Amino acid sequence: MSVMVDKHIDIDVLRRTVRFHVSGARRNSITRFEVVKVLTDGGLPGSEIQAVFRCEAPNTWFTTVTSQDIVDRIVSEGVVDKEHFSLHPECCDRRRLTNRVQWLPSWIADEAIAAHFHAFYGKLINVERETSSVGGVNLETGTRVLTKIIREGDQDTIPHRARLFGKSALIMVPGRPPICLRCQQINHVRGNRKKTYSYGGISTT
To answer: Which superkingdom is the protein from (predicted)?
Structure first.
């Protein structure tokens, strides 16, 4: 069964689809037949191609194949140049994600944080130190802002909290429900949580 994200994206199909940006004199007029011919001339059996389609942009074609390995191979082979057009392949399921990592002391090097997140959570392309002006003085807040390229759906694998170099870090991902730092449950924060008291083994709120 395919994995669904946001109830409308079939991640399996998305990861098996290549986006071709078309450049050149015929960028707006190449046909489905020509896209298929480029792929089969490159050694891909026609039986491995499941769909070839366009959306609104006339110079962008999408091709769904039978496996992610084929997508990776097509993308790794790079641009395909023909007489009047070129196809530039890209993975459809990649997207840019910017998240914030809090609670880390300033002496932990940005390069070490970058290496950690690159190893587990996608290709990291930038690390910045968040700053704030206090009384006219620009100070680091201890928060690192990370920009990564990830596969769609992989943002769900990033934990809310993690141990980095012996320190506890809080990881904020845009659009993700908050976590309560008291009870570790999702969808509420500590300040909005009803307090529970126990009297003789009976819990009340």
So the answer is: Eukaryota
3-class DSSP state of 29: coil
Q: Can 11-92 and 93-204 be said to share one CATH topology?
A: yes
| Domain 11-92 class in CATH | alpha beta
pTM (predicted TM-score): 0.57
For residue 127, the SS3 value is strand
- The amino acid at residue 54 is R
Rounded Cα gap, residues 81 and 92, in angstroms: 21
Domains of the chain, by residue range, sit at: 11-92, 93-204
> How many C-alpha atoms does 204 have within 13 Å on its Cβ side?
3
Token look-up 């904020």 returns: 172
Give me the tens of pLDDT residue by residue for the chain, a chain 205 residues long. 444 445 678 888 998 999 999 999 999 999 999 999 999 999 999 999 999 999 888 899 999 999 999 999 999 999 999 999 999 998 888 877 888 999 999 999 999 998 888 877 778 888 999 999 999 999 999 899 998 888 777 888 888 888 989 999 999 988 787 778 777 777 665 555 555 433 333 334 4
- Identify the bridge partners of residue 102 per DSSP, sorted by sequence position: 170
